[in-house]
Amino acid sequence: MKNEKKALEEFFQIQHVDEMEPFFMNIVSGTDLWTFMSSNGGITAGRRSADWALFPYETDDRVTASAENTGSKTLIRRNGYHHCWEPFSIRSEAQFNIVRNLYKNRIGNSVIFEEINNDWQLAFRWQWTPGDRFGFQRKATLTNLGTETISLEVLDGLQNIMPCGVPSGLQQASSNLVNAYKETQLEPQTGMGMFSLSAIIIDRAEPSEALRCNVAWQVGLDNPTHLLSSAQVPAFRKGLPLKEETLVKGECGAYLLGTSMTLQAEEKKTWTIVADVMKDQTEVVALREMQKHISMQTALDEDLKNATALLVQLVAQADGIQTTSDKARTARHFSNTMFNIMRGGIPMNTPTPENPLPLGFSRRHGDPTRPWNKFNINTTDPVTGKPVLDYEGNWRDLFQNWEALAVSYPTLLKPMTDKFLSCSTADGYNPYRVTKAGFDWETVDPSDPWSYIGYWGDHQIIYLLRLMEAEEAHTPGEIAARLDIPAYPFANVPYRIKTYHEILQNPKDTIRFDASLNNQIKKEMAVKGIDAALLKGTDGKTIKVSLLEKLLVSLLAKLSNFIPDGGIWMNTQRPEWNDANNALVGGGLSVVTLCYLHRALVFYRNIVAASPTATFTLSREVSTWMDCTKDALALTSTQEVMNALGEAATTYRQKIYTQSFCEGNIQVQREDVLSFLTAALSPVERSIRANRRDDGLYHSYNILELSKGRFAGIRTLPEMLEGQVAVLSSGVLSPKEALAVLDTLRTSRLYREDQQSYMLYPNKELPGFLEKNCLPGDALDRSALLKKMIKEGDKRLVSQDVCGKLHFNGTFRNAADLATAMKNIDVTEDEQNVLLDLFEETFDHKAFTGRSGTFYAYEGLGSIYWHMVSKLVVATQECYFQALDSNAPETEALAKHYHAILEGTGIHKDARQYGAFSTDAYSHTPWGKGVRQPGMTGQVKEDILTRFGELGVRIKDGKVTFSPTLLRDDEYLPDGTLTFSYCGAQITYHRGKGEGITLSEADSARLFARQMTELEINV
Amino acid sequence: MKNEKKALEEFFQIQHVDEMEPFFMNIVSGTDLWTFMSSNGGITAGRRSADWALFPYETDDRVTASAENTGSKTLIRRNGYHHCWEPFSIRSEAQFNIVRNLYKNRIGNSVIFEEINNDWQLAFRWQWTPGDRFGFQRKATLTNLGTETISLEVLDGLQNIMPCGVPSGLQQASSNLVNAYKETQLEPQTGMGMFSLSAIIIDRAEPSEALRCNVAWQVGLDNPTHLLSSAQVPAFRKGLPLKEETLVKGECGAYLLGTSMTLQAEEKKTWTIVADVMKDQTEVVALREMQKHISMQTALDEDLKNATALLVQLVAQADGIQTTSDKARTARHFSNTMFNIMRGGIPMNTPTPENPLPLGFSRRHGDPTRPWNKFNINTTDPVTGKPVLDYEGNWRDLFQNWEALAVSYPTLLKPMTDKFLSCSTADGYNPYRVTKAGFDWETVDPSDPWSYIGYWGDHQIIYLLRLMEAEEAHTPGEIAARLDIPAYPFANVPYRIKTYHEILQNPKDTIRFDASLNNQIKKEMAVKGIDAALLKGTDGKTIKVSLLEKLLVSLLAKLSNFIPDGGIWMNTQRPEWNDANNALVGGGLSVVTLCYLHRALVFYRNIVAASPTATFTLSREVSTWMDCTKDALALTSTQEVMNALGEAATTYRQKIYTQSFCEGNIQVQREDVLSFLTAALSPVERSIRANRRDDGLYHSYNILELSKGRFAGIRTLPEMLEGQVAVLSSGVLSPKEALAVLDTLRTSRLYREDQQSYMLYPNKELPGFLEKNCLPGDALDRSALLKKMIKEGDKRLVSQDVCGKLHFNGTFRNAADLATAMKNIDVTEDEQNVLLDLFEETFDHKAFTGRSGTFYAYEGLGSIYWHMVSKLVVATQECYFQALDSNAPETEALAKHYHAILEGTGIHKDARQYGAFSTDAYSHTPWGKGVRQPGMTGQVKEDILTRFGELGVRIKDGKVTFSPTLLRDDEYLPDGTLTFSYCGAQITYHRGKGEGITLSEADSARLFARQMTELEINV
Asked: Which of A450, A551, A894, A959 sits between 20 and 30 A of B183, alpha carbons compared?
């Protein structure tokens, strides 16, 4: 695989990059250096988090807008010419005949900006690459492309270098205050720039020393003039001489080097500026002395070599390296793997009983395109500099990335599911965030209007299920064998789900936050760690229950919200899947969860059936809940089923909320459990089938209509992509039915021809500003109060425009605002109802789905959300294999769909169509724009899964089979081979020489344990 | 004064404005429109607050940096030419021979940007003026300066127009998210642009309609092509045709008009773009219909006329209009008056008993140069559109602006002092903010690390005193007459000052925040209003005390912290004057307050002596405190005095904190009060004199040295400007002594030659990064622990650099961090002390004064803080009048100083020296830079006071004298007259015709009551 590693050094190119809309890139290092760049040259970079920035951490639009003032800056004056050439600056665009190109290497850790000045026959390039020891390297190359000798004055370097110690929020809201504290000094012996604060910025009247600085220095230019600010840039532009700057106070820092150079024909000059953050005096002195005594160029080259090797090694461990003739595809797989382990982590050590998941490289995610997420790269100890093992993330993120990681580390599947199950609550949900130490939950902060709580029920069933399915495939019987072992605690999240009766009254406000319990837990956690957040029994000891009980509780929690033919009622204040339809909370019924529940019930039934024991120990409370649920599902009317399920869950919850588990254990027969699972399965399947639309697609979400706390019907919503993915994954459809769904999907309103892919829901036009907020024409007839108020010119509720139309007060945002306003002016109850009806008629808020109807990027109107598309790829591949295994006639047609959807994800798209280098995954593509949000999308996990499926790696009954039936022939190299890494082994396929193989159970186990290094397979 | 009103329309010009550093301007309207502009064209504007912005509200550096993308944008293509001319854009700078000029009118509500393209012989101007009815008007004028007919393609308009409904914090931190919600539509009938959100941006899953929009429309161009985004700007630049945009989603809004025009020689074309915010459907329809039916140009002209007239009228009412030959001076006075009433407000109605201060136009201050302040202009009701009477501000701001307002409205002096006294606490301090409804205080918010509490003791004595002195001068005897009337409540601020003993232990942590009392008061306030925050007696009724008791309590509070020869100990957690020396809190002794206390004691002694009654009713608690204080002041040693004062105050506070006032009242003889005041006066005066430095200046602040809770000496600090101002104001100095101070000041290190003015303290160089944090050379000898840790490579406390020097861990900010780190690694107490000593030796934090030593703008190193300079002007004028009245030989020399210092404030400075239009006051001038922070500085209040003094308006014994001895001769108009407004009357001076006059008491009273309209005076 050495050649491939070398090939990773190759660069992809986008010519005339300035003809595209600027796009954003996420440049990665093997340690804690982070960089985000815009294709116009804008940059933000730093270490660890946004608070340790070399260039200001701003949202992507601002990074792009700051290109003139931040990051790389070069001014080139040619002797005898009046104009000044400034590569990538808008100042130069109209003055020269220029070409701008962009390059990114296959590893994804190096980007080159290139501008060719055809008038002067000069090319200037700068290349950004993160090292590790020395930080960021920015190498400049100036080449004389012509045949004349050229004499030049050059001012080159970095602008707007941050001092050390500025939190990103302070910089964003108060950059002018930060500027007042900036102190930039030249280290006179070496010409190194030191960027510090005169003091750490605090409001308290106490000393607050700033004892660390950011640094910049250079190699390659002899005795340049050093500038520490941009103050002299205008003077240089005019041809005035530069004056060395040694101390600049109260201004933005810069590190600019002025020099003269003469370039012979075809000669090129190269120099490197190095910049790093968070250096204390000891480190700066070390750097100074080193610069005085050794060849820094060699050390810099070494650092880049090591940094790149480290990153490649991490990705290689996670099987990111493949060699096929499709370089775009293998580069994307490399990148997918890299982004997958960035979020989920990768084992750094051998697992031990104390640390069964010794992951590192994981990080809390976030980037400048999504300001609500704050990334944090905890890979090294800031004091000792030693590697840190840590992981942290929203639970759905961590577990999704772990699923892909488990392809390469299947022995981690058990500790992963253990972690999953140890975080779930006794009422059947999962807390918000998982950390190495345990878990964390959202809290209510009265001073933060954005704070909110709830259970993000999404993926809860499917993500756990997929990990378990994988474990069962790799090590059959092991799950069944531990079903009855009491090993799992419950998370004691201080949320209290209200009673069924209360939920019916207001299904959007269903959880009480127990602030005092929260405080008590957090206080105890400071001393005892996560143990303080685990549920205790009446004896004060941490409760541990069996795997079966854990699984049952999560199934029962979902089933307790089952609405026959409707779906799973989403009433835990947070949306089911991501935020697209966040307003469905309360009223929404998830068919999606129903589909995954089906798959889970089937799987768990098989596991239970395979259990070596005939009885199981369950808490009596759970057993009762199970029995009641089973009975409830046998009832006939929807209202009866709802009531019985809701009451059973309420009874259970009230017991555990008030007394924890106190009823003791009970032995339950296997047959009883199986009978419960079977009893659940049939209404679930029936309900899925009931959600088939006339066009052959399936509903994704429905709306539960309630009237005075009683079931009043199910309302459907327009088609969505998610439901198709779910039904294809549910195990309900035959290959024929699956194919029908995929065929219909291609001709549906969800398909976007320009990107050959699928939106989450059909694009639609919102009403124009003057079309919305218009009351029905008969409003005045219906409300005497309105008539009176309009007559009196009282605009507090409604105003009438000069053309006679009525509009609600422009300060109202929803019916609650109207209600408050009416309360303030003593409107009668009857009139209140009339006005609230008018409001609902005007806005139709009952059908409000949330973000999917309110904005134009991310999961918004017209956007393609790539993670969901890649889930469709996964589901299609599953259907393909199902068809293949059953020799169904739809097999080839499903394969065709698979490849078509996969192509739509953009691997082979032209940069102009894709909107960026297509070797990187991006989160979404808004209507009419290029891709957005680089790298850390859930898509990478799905693409890793399907890639191994495509390579024909399938695991079943503890054995791995290599049989690449989906693989495109043209991926083979000219010699008929291709190689890829799997469980750390290099697998080589020899095409046309055989039929693939299935390894023995023993060999498979060796492979899963990463004890094989190579495998040659004839396929 | 009509001519003068006309003259206000005149414009001041700055030629070649692009050769100056960009500077910032505050453009004012008579209602709620706000605009801040950078001289490079950058702009932010809106109504009411930063949350209702037309262009994004950002800090000034960002407004300047956004000029290319935000606000006015013009592209001009000339037929037959390749290049595109973009006035004020960096794109055009090198392409054409251009001149850029800037104009601002005398009123200060209109700014013109002008670029002359000498190559094409074209001039383009755009002018920003806020109207009221229609919002912001931006008038464009394109003039053919040449003799040829020119054909042009023009794209002109506004970029980055905000949608309605985006809070400024959201925009600053998450502009890319905001972009995703943007919806811009063209109103097809009129070509009006409507800028709205698709939904109000919230995280909750609830409908949130955005029912208001911002609008932009135009008058003057026939059938232009409308663009609603900047997307086609690059195409226009290349000469491609434009395509009308009718709906743009998910992008920054713009309002750009494409048109062709032909300009004959010397012909000019004019058009106007109008933009406004917060329009609902009813208002937009009204605007649409109006545009269809009437001549909008006439309506626009009318609106500007009215808006300007309103602003001028407001300023005129506050005597802002003067006519002299010095237009810069009178323009600055106009501007000073305008900014003074913007903060303090101006009477809008006749005072009534219910509303004795019917002020409007006041606002909470703030601007883009100080992101920590959030302005709020509550002048009109957003629903009804009717004027609102309101005022709000930090108490020191409001009362300072009121002092200047009272020059024109002297009848408001009593209600002003009443307001002041009704806000002070029983322990003798003032809450943070004053509102029309009452007052407000800072609270501790555990989730906000910036939240903090304390009493800002600064100005407490002097601001009240100055209001009282003014009242006594206007209506002698009235204060004395109400000394014994129980009319004043105490604010029950939930702060509890600790005991003297506790304060000695930690003088930086001296106030307990009573969170539960705070909650209780706030809860009650929601129902009962401010009454809930007033101190109640044991009977539950609001306590009311006499004026004398109020005054005594505030004097006693200060005296309780009197340190003989040292000053007033600042131990209420907040600094005395502004934040410059904020870290003096706890250790600092204010000589400044001592000076003002002296002046106050003298004044109050006179008032008490003049009282018509011989006895006063005091609360027994206060009487006891007074007696104890008097006794304490008679003690000899500093320690004894401190102890006795501190214990007396503690006893008093403990009583009122625990039982409120419960000891009943006592009758106190006038002589006893006088004897107390006299007893206080003499040590105060002695201490002031003790603070004379050898160079003749006076100390401003000293440091109290404590050792184990005992007095251990007084340490002096370098010279500061504030102490000189205070001693000149104290009434202690003779004219001769005052002159000596001013002479010395001019030759001191405080003087900045380049600005002919004074810094707050001498500029100094901070140690360089590698010079700081170096432990003493013998550190290893002193600490065995350090030696051991260094040997073991343990860097948790100290690291050693390769050159052998030792440095504390770079994460430490102060000794507390070191202490925490030592605690974590179990360092012995002895070693702890050694290391803490080493830390103090390394950083000398005992002498840490706070911001004055930590940053480079605002009140920082090298800055001139103009408010303090203008206080020096006030003090100098007072000394001049004192000398004049006593025929002292120093009179002329003092007058000379007065004029020199006044000139230094910049009225007549060249724009390049000043850094902006010198007709506006700015807050400060950092070293080597231009002025910063336009308009709303306390300076304006001082300058108003001295201006009337300079005009010879002096009030004494109820009579006003007009005798302009300080006025410069060259201010008279050629006809020997000048006019100014005073108490609403037009005063005309006829020079050389007389000696001025003193009006009779009756005439004076008529004038004070604003019942005179004109007065001709021979001077």
From this structure: A450
Query: How many angstroms separate the CA atoms of B918 and B953, rounded?
Result: 25
Amino acid symbol at B830: D
Beta-carbon separation of B194 and A770 below 8 A: yes
Nearest to B77 by CA among B149, B140, B156, B154: B154
DSSP assignment, residue A425?
B
Cα(A773)–Cα(A785) distance, integer angstroms:
19
Q: What is the CA radius of gyration of chain A?
A: 31
Q: A304, A409, A345, A329: which is closest to A4 by C-alpha? A: A329
pLDDT tens, position by position, A843-890? 988 878 877 778 898 888 999 999 999 999 999 999 999 999 999 999
Pairing status of strand B665-669 against strand B701-707: unpaired
DSSP B853: G
CB crowding B561-570: b at 16 or more within 10 Å, else e: bbbbbbbbbb
| Closest to B108 measured CA to CA, from B344, B334, B310 | B334
Q: Tell me the CB-side half-sphere exposure of residue A550, using CA atoms within 13 A.
A: 30
Q: How far apart are CA A154 and CA A143, in angstroms?
A: 13
| Structural contact between residues B873 and B949, judged by C-beta atoms closer than 8 angstroms | no
**How far apart, in whole angstroms, are the C-alpha atoms of residue B898 and residue B895?**
5
Q: Please, which residues have CB within 8 angstroms of residue A305's CB and are 6 or more apart in sequence?
A: none
How far apart are the CA of A573 and the nearest CA of chain B, in angstroms?
Answer: 8
Provide the strand spans (E) within A146-221: 150-161, 182-187, 192-197, 212-219
Structure tokens at B201: 């941006």
Q: Give dist(CA B297, CA B275) in Å, integer.
A: 14
Find the CB nearest A196 among B281, B448, B769: B769
Helix (H, G, I), strand (E, B) or coil at A37: strand
Residue A803 and residue B769: Cβ atoms within 8 Å? no
What would the pLDDT profile of B58-114 be if each residue is shown by its tens digit? Answer: 999 999 999 999 999 999 999 999 889 999 999 999 899 999 999 999 999 999 999
Distance from CA of A427 to the nearest CA of B (A): 23
Q: What is the DSSP letter of B733?
A: S
Say how many C-beta atoms besides its own lie within 10 A of residue B60's C-beta: 26
Nearest-10 crossing angle of helices B413-422, B460-474: 150
Tokens in use for B399? 């009362």
Question: What is the three-class DSSP state of A977?
Answer: strand
Task: Determine, for residues B285 and A803 on separate chains, whether the beta-carbon distance falls below 8 Å.
Answer: yes
Assigned token pair, A848: 């409000």
B65 touches chain A (CB under 8 A): yes
Q: What is the pLDDT of residues B803-836, one digit of tens each?
A: 999 999 999 999 999 999 999 888 999 999 999 9
Task: With H, G, I as helix, E, B as strand and everything else as coil, classify residue A945.
Answer: helix
DSSP secondary structure code for residue B846 in this structure: G
pLDDT in tens, B373-427: 889 999 888 777 778 898 988 888 899 999 999 999 999 999 999 999 999 999 9
CA torsion sign for B527, B530, B536, B542 is negative
CA distance A96 to chain B (A): 11
Phi and psi (nearest 5°) for B537? -85, -175
Q: In what helix (H) or strand (E) does residue A199 lie, and over which residues does it extend?
A: none
Which residues are within 8 A (CB) of B18 and not within 5 positions of it... i.e. 6 or more apart?
A: B40, B88, B93, B100
Give the residue-averaged pLDDT of B24-51: 97
Please choose, from the candidates B684, B651, B667, the residue with its C-alpha nearest in 3D space to the C-alpha of residue B618: B667
Structure tokens at A1016: 């040659």
pLDDT tens digits for range B601-654: 999 999 999 999 899 999 999 999 999 999 999 999 999 999 999 999 999 999
Does ipTM top 0.85? yes
Identify residue A423 by its one-letter amino acid code.
C
